[in-house]
Amino acid sequence: LLRCLASVVHHSDWILRKTAEFPGHPFTKIPIISYPILLNDLKPLVTIEKTSTMQSATGIPPHIEAAAKTRKLLEMCTETLQAVQNQATQIRDAFIYTDPTGQQKFWDVPEDFRFPLNTDRKTGWRLWLNGLPNNQVLLEDGTTKCHPIAPFSKFNTSRLPNAVKQAFRLHWIPVFSLMGSAPGLDLPARRPPTGYTGEDLDAAFTITTAHLKSRASYIWNDRKKRTATWSVSTWAKHLRYSSIEKNGTASDKAALPERTRYNTPREGDKRTRQRSNLETPRVNRRRVTAQDMNPPAPPPPPPPPVPPPP
Length: 310
Prior knowledge:
The protein is mainly alpha-helical and 310 residues long. The chain is built from 12 helices and 4 strands, in the order ααααββαββααααααα. The longest helix is centred in the N-terminal third of the chain and has 33 residues. The N and C termini lie far apart (166 Å).
């Protein structure tokens, strides 16, 4: 009881403020709150410094603090679950399609999705990490609706339309997978709900560009190449295994990974077209037409001569 009275006196100002904010609050039933003179006399006697009888302040009981933290955690989990359910519902509504067998399946993008034309590498890096959170879809009634698209790095080729799958596999994956393997790339493991900030993207882009220079330095050695305006497909062409093997420097070739079945050139007999013998006279041949197959009928024979009169 001694500690309870000290706590009430110490927090009396906060208790009075709560009774003013919430009329009818149970705090108004605390008897000592109704005696302001007594409260003022007791406040100088209450301290949180250690004394001979109390070595340390007791503070909030552990079970009360644990209950408060548990309540906050439960509220946060509930909000997160609702946000995920709402986002999943939007994605299902936007990216559902029916396959030739009549079964309903899901895509990572809308059916009419296309990659932005002439996307440069820096813009592509932002899309690779943040996606299109404000992507708009045109509805049948002519209005638009926001249906976010996940970061392109989360795409699964089996869940992409054929028109998008080939470009993603040939252009986007080779470039940005190589950029994402840069040593020292320090991005938060979990993407923030609002996406990575511009500062995070710029810092990561600088690190990944340095990694590309160490793997394909021949691109930057040629000053005529305006790499700042290159599209993703152009970068994919110059970062290809065969391009580096053909045009790369010695250090570029040394950094090439081991060959796989995807970058190993085909081996076999090189078939060449057989040329005709020059000593053999060439026979001029004419293409057979439908008229040759069905020649016109010959003209009728002339009538017999008429004998002269007697």
